[in-house]
Specification:
mainly alpha; single chain; 0% strand; 207 residues
């Protein structure tokens, strides 16, 4: 068998595999449409993208396999590949795969949806109460914050007044950090010295 014939057989088998792959890709799109609901616009867009990809793949096959020349063998090979796939794997691929996904991932999603629905029902009264009394709750927290702030300021002011009274009574400290008792002792000593000096000057004994 010559090398040219072997090359033609390889090209034809690649065409068959390309046709089977294109059919499989469209079954994947069909499966995706069954799993997730699509609108008309989404379906049309997916079809346009699919046929664009098919055109690009076919052009690549003909360009590298037959120098860009369209041959009946390539078209026939792609058709045979699609037919073989549709008769064998394509008969049960979408149904079986959808069943498996629906029983595993689909069941999990449905369970999560039920849990979320029950939580929404339980939290619906709380949500309604919060929506209706939103302004009241906001005012309550604002007033609470104001009370806490005023209480803190009042306590701080009382502490300052109390410390100032202590400083005046001689039990606390003055603003410059010195003890009032020391100041009073110095005042007493200075008063005594002044009295003794006056007594010496006048000749009268100090009391």
């Amino acid at each position: 068998m010559s090398g040219e014939i072997v090359k033609e057989w390889h090209f034809w088998l690649v065409s068959v595999a390309t046709g089977a792959f294109l059919a499989f890709a469209y079954d994947v799109i069909r499966l995706f449409r069954r799993l997730i609901r699509h609108g008309r616009f989404a379906v049309d867009l997916e079809d346009i993208l699919y046929w664009t990809a098919c055109f690009g793949l076919s052009f690549t096959l003909l360009y590298y396999g037959n120098n860009g020349v369209i041959r009946f063998a390539a078209v026939l090979g792609a058709a045979v590949g699609m037919l073989v796939y549709a008769v064998t794997v394509g008969r049960f691929f979408v149904k079986v795969t959808f069943f498996m996904i629906d029983k595993t991932i689909g069941s999990l999603f449905r369970l999560i949806r039920k849990i979320i629905g029950k939580l929404r029902k339980l939290l619906r009264p709380v949500k309604c109460f919060a929506v209706k009394n939103c302004h009241k709750i906001k005012r309550f927290f604002i007033r609470l914050f104001q009370k806490i702030r005023l209480t803190y300021i009042g306590n701080r002011h009382k502490m300052k007044v109390h410390n100032h009274k202590k400083a005046k009574d001689g039990k606390g400290e003055t603003t410059d950090g010195r003890k009032n008792s020391k100041r009073k002792a110095k005042r007493k000593d200075s008063g005594k010295t002044n009295r003794s000096a006056k007594a010496k000057d006048t000749g009268v004994s100090p009391r």
